Amino acid sequence: MPTNLEIMRKLTTEELHRISKAEFEQAEKTPIIIILDNIRSLSNVGAFFRTADAFRIEALYLCGITACPPHREIHKTALGADETVSWKYFETTEKACQHLKAENYRIFAVEQVEGSVALQRFRFEPRTAYILGNEVEGVSEEALPYCESAIELPQEGTKHSLNVSVCAGILMWDAFKTLHLTP
Q1: Cis, peptide link before residue 70, omega less than 30° from 0
Q2: What is the arithmetic mean of pLDDT over 120-149?
Q3: For the domain with range 23-178, which CATH number is right: 3.40.630.30, 2.30.170.40, 1.10.510.10, 3.40.1280.10?
Q4: Over the stretch 23-37, which tens digit does the pLDDT of each residue have?
Q5: Is the pLDDT assigned to residue 2 strictly greater than 70?
Q6: Cβ neighbours of residue 165 closer than 8 Å, sequence gap 6 or more
Q7: Structure pTM?
Q8: Shortest CA distance to 164 belongs to which of 99, 88, 109, 96?
C-alpha cells in the first residue's frame, strides 16, 4: 500500500495557474476594504499585502504611522503583492473612515470590546471596511465611533491576542469564503 508521500507531489508553478499582474488588475475583487490603523511593523504591512492579494481584497487603506510601498521591508514580506493590491494612504484612520462613510461603506472594528460579535456569528456583506489596529494599542479610540460594531476572533489560549497580520488573514479568508464561495 502506498504511503502519502508516494501519492502526493507538489504542484508546479504552471499547475497552480497563477494569474498575471494584468489579469489580477482585471479580476473581480472581494468587495471589502481593510484599514490598517497605525501598524508599526513593516513585516506586518507586507503580510497584509500578501494576504490581500491571495484573497483579491478590493483595497488596503494605510493610516497614520503605517508605512507605505515602495519599501524594501514591505516588499520582502509581500513578495510583490505590494505591486498588485490597490492601496491608499490617509494621514489618520478617522480621515479614512470619513472617506468610506461618504462612499456609503459600513465600518467594523476588529477588536476586543464590550458587545463585540464573535467572528463565527458575523455575516460578511459587500461594501464594508474592517479596521485592524496597532500591534500594542489595537484599534484607536478615535476610530471606534465610526464603527457600527466590532468583530472579535474567539481565542482560548493564555494570551488572548493574535498577531495583527494573522488576525487579518483569518478575517480576509472568512470574508472571501463567504462572499465568493458560498452560493
Answers
A1: yes
A2: 97
A3: 3.40.1280.10
A4: 999 999 999 999 999
A5: no
A6: 43, 44, 47, 48, 51
A7: 0.94
A8: 109
